[in-house]
Amino acid sequence: MLTGTGIWSPLLRYGDPAEIGDAVAELESWGYTAVWLPDVGGDLFDAVDRILAASSTLTAATGILNIWKQTTEATNAWWSGLQPADRDRTLLGLGVSHGPFIGADYTRPLAAMRTFVDALDVPAEHLCIAALGPKMLQLAKDRTAGTHPYLVTPEHTAIAREALGPAALVAPEQGVVLETDPAAARAIARSQLGGYATLPNYVNNWKRLGFTDDDVTSLSDRLVDALVVWGDVDAIAARVAEHRAAGADHVCLQVLQQQGEPMPRSTWKALAGV
Length: 274
What we know:
The protein is α/β, with parallel strands linked by helices. 48% of the residues lie in helices and 15% in strands. The chain has helices spanning 11-14, 17-29, 44-53, 72-81, 84-87, 99-102, 109-119, 134-143, 154-164, 182-193, 200-208, 213-218, 221-227, 233-246, 265-270, and strands at residues 5-8, 34-37, 59-66, 90-95, 127-129, 146-147, 169-170, 173-177, 228-230, 251-255. The strands form 2 sheets. An 8-stranded parallel β-sheet has the order 5-4-3-2-1-10-8-9. Strand 6 (146-147), helix 9 and strand 7 (169-170) form a beta-alpha-beta unit. The protein starts with a strand and ends with a helix. 43% of the residues are buried.
């Protein structure tokens, strides 16, 4: 079972390969237990291989493997070629992405996820699903090791734990801004959340958690502060502790920053104790 704290970062997939290798080695030395990679198409598996090659104990995880952009055939072929030791350190988080990204092919996402999982030769203990609503959470419980929910609150972590039971993996993503000035921190958070606030899967989940249309359209302080923790290291540690108290086995931190900024290695180091 994956425990501890991980790092979720697109820069560890799409950045310079040499810098990625160095950064992954540092993350492992600082005590992080996993690196999570996003997917909007393209060669995902080379990126996972890069994480495995640069580390010896870290779990290389996908957050997520986009089931509309990757095929079960390619996934199975890659998995079959992995060495047993690398398989032991691999977790494929699967996700249905979003209709506005996928277009006309985006139909019956729950059924599509079920079909994708059925066709995989990857053992259930190496799979999880980015599940938000009750039906997808049930599928995660029935067919995989657990769930990797994105853009959620500790309250959702508690919902996921109750839905999946005590034995399943619950590994939420948590956005963080290491900045104590409220206006500056919220500005960074809003710059990253704006696009997500147009996606029905997230919006519907936020509403299930009690947020309103006004919260979403205005990106209210209430919504921003619930989804993104900002402040000093202690403030971020407190939010991670809330997720753990709500039932999380593992929390992966996504350091939010302005577009074009370099890999936040100093911030990752500062948060390693979390």
